[in-house]
Amino acid sequence: MAATIKDVAEKALVSSITVSRVINGRSNVHADTRARVLAAIEELQYIPNDTASNLRSSQTTMLALLLPTIVDSFWMTIARGVEDEAEARGYGVLLCNTDDDTIKEARYLESLLRRRVAGVVIVPTTESGPQLQRLRRQGLPLVQIHRKVSRVEADVVRADSYGGARALTTHLIDDGARTIAYIGGLLSTSTGCDRLAGHQDALTAAGITVDPGLLKLGRYSEQTGYLLVKELLRAPIRLDALAIGNSRQAIGALHALAEARLRVPEDVAIAAFHDSADLDEYSPFMTSVIQPAYDIGRIGTRRLFERIAGQHTRFEEFILPNRIVMGPMRGVVLA
Amino acid sequence: MAATIKDVAEKALVSSITVSRVINGRSNVHADTRARVLAAIEELQYIPNDTASNLRSSQTTMLALLLPTIVDSFWMTIARGVEDEAEARGYGVLLCNTDDDTIKEARYLESLLRRRVAGVVIVPTTESGPQLQRLRRQGLPLVQIHRKVSRVEADVVRADSYGGARALTTHLIDDGARTIAYIGGLLSTSTGCDRLAGHQDALTAAGITVDPGLLKLGRYSEQTGYLLVKELLRAPIRLDALAIGNSRQAIGALHALAEARLRVPEDVAIAAFHDSADLDEYSPFMTSVIQPAYDIGRIGTRRLFERIAGQHTRFEEFILPNRIVMGPMRGVVLA
DNA sequence: TTGAAAGCGCTAACAA
DNA sequence: TTGTTAGCGCTTTCAA
């Protein structure tokens, strides 16, 4: 049987609470006493039992991170930010891959509640609202990252989707494009809304009328990007450029353009959000919005710790700036 | 205050142990009683406390996964395998990013012992031996994946490094190469040893003498690959081909060749282990060994669960086959 | 099928 | 600076 705090206490001729104080290092313990306790711990190969201390103190040192997928450098860069921040504070991170499936997510959230995790960092799915409200009712600290569902009492840390999209389209306009189609996510996601708005405002600001026929929305998948561009190309329009709200859609779009023998950027210029390394090999041909993935994770987690510590009262939204990487310019820009 | 099992018991007019039996569904409970308990749970919004049940039953439903890095599709594909298997059984996965740093790894292992995780899936670092032996002494079930350190009581699940390396070099020989250099990992890692052996045996089997001057070993990094190839190119040898034991080294090697204005595969053919998506964009130019990352994670975790359940007595090593993707052939192969 | 009693290993609260 | 007492919320053990 493994040694307990009581065994250590007996060997060191002190009470268990003194051993506890030595282990947790919070209270003052006489140097001699401490030395005796440490010796006993060493001799008995004692390993404190966190499950017991968690129960007694009704708190754990575990966070949960819920992500839509894990085999993807964008999400894993976020995870790395979360992990670094948690590890620095001695917290563990439970990795939960939701597959963007509300059922799977709900199953996870239920188990996290039972596990009494200290807090949750989540990229919510579209229908997460009720589940997240339930967590809040149980008093579980929560931070939404990258995406958000409204009416949930939680801080939000995310990239500037609106600004990024606006910059992309503005760049295309500066490059001489006038007929600019937009491929993006559905309006049921917060990123989908923000990016579309950024695109439209860029057009309006440049005095270009928004043509609803040039706005194509769908799931964030390669196939969707492919199909939406196919659809666009069937219309009798001469497209100057494509603004794309997501990496996977961009890859599909590039394939559709290649099939139509349209060159990038000579025939059609492209500007896209870059949220997956899969887009890397195509990047040289386009202007990209690189989102601050690591900081989203790191800052989100830092905020979560502040919540756990009971700081702050108002829930806030932190919008982090993107980095724009210019692609090749097609036209000549007059300064 | 959150409701406890006792509150539920009172409301349902039963004892707490009956509530426990309903929750865990292991023992027989009369249908009427069950219904009353369920109603009380619903009414009180009762959420079982896993920390309490863990303490009492001295077992948790948590696994730990220790990985050398997480922003990388190879490791994350392994993680996905682990996660899928664990989730299916209601277990959580603690994600531990060791950065291949023994100190950080040791810190993690210590915390996992305290947390009383049910088992550990680990990609060990070179110096993990003593730490892992300590875990075993505490009776913690352990599975090593991808790499192994010897003299640790643990199953091992890994790809066939030897066979993969042998296939790579054999392919180069079949393609007409005779002067084949090898770039690979240090012999302090198990993969480094196995891959070098596979390369050498392929040469020997083809009647080619192993030239020690053509074997260059170093860290699994882009820079190392670059420097080792630079070194090779300084020698007055006409190189036919390069067998490379690691993706990052391969990327560095490609850069060195490009600098020397050597074309791939026309001037120098390349065959490499593919263990990172970063190599993707170069893959069309070379023959690659694709390792069964998902299955390494999945099968490793399955084996861990069998250990946790107390099955098996002997520790075994499972060697999974790779998939070889042929690159362009340089010479003409006569059947 | 159900329950009573005990206790898992630790720490909060209070006391000295 | 150190100790005593009690109890966190559950499940084991034994009994009916």
Can you walk me through this structure?
The structure is a homodimer of 335-residue chains. Chain A is an alpha/beta fold. Chain A has helices spanning 5-12, 16-24, 31-44, 50-57, 73-88, 102-115, 129-137, 161-174, 190-205, 222-234, 247-259, 293-308, and strands at 62-67, 92-97, 119-122, 142-145, 155-159, 180-185, 215-218, 241-244, 269-274, 287-290, 317-320, 323-325. In chain A, the strands form two sheets. The first copy, chain A, has a six-stranded parallel β-sheet with strand order 2-1-3-4-5-11, with helices on both faces. In chain A, helix 9 (190-205) links the parallel strand 6 and strand 7 (215-218). In chain A, helix 1 packs across helix 2. Chain A starts with a helix and ends in a 10-residue tail after the last strand. The interface between A and B is large, with 44 and 44 residues. The structure holds a DNA duplex (16 and 16 nucleotides).
- The beta-strand count of chain A equals 12
Q: Secondary-structure element order of chain A, as H and E?
A: HHHHEHEHEHEEHEHEHEHEEHEE
Give the CA-CA distance, first to last residue of chain A. Answer: 78 Å
Structural class of chain A: alpha/beta
* Average of the residue pLDDT scores of chain A: 92
Oligomeric description of these chains: homodimer
Spatial strand sequence of the major β-sheet of chain A: 2-1-3-4-5-11
Number of helices of chain A: 12
Question: What portion of the residues of chain A fall into strands of 2 or more residues?
Answer: 15-25%
Largest interface: A-B, 44 and 44 residues
The coarse overall form of chain A would be elongated
Helical coverage of chain A, percent range? 40-55%
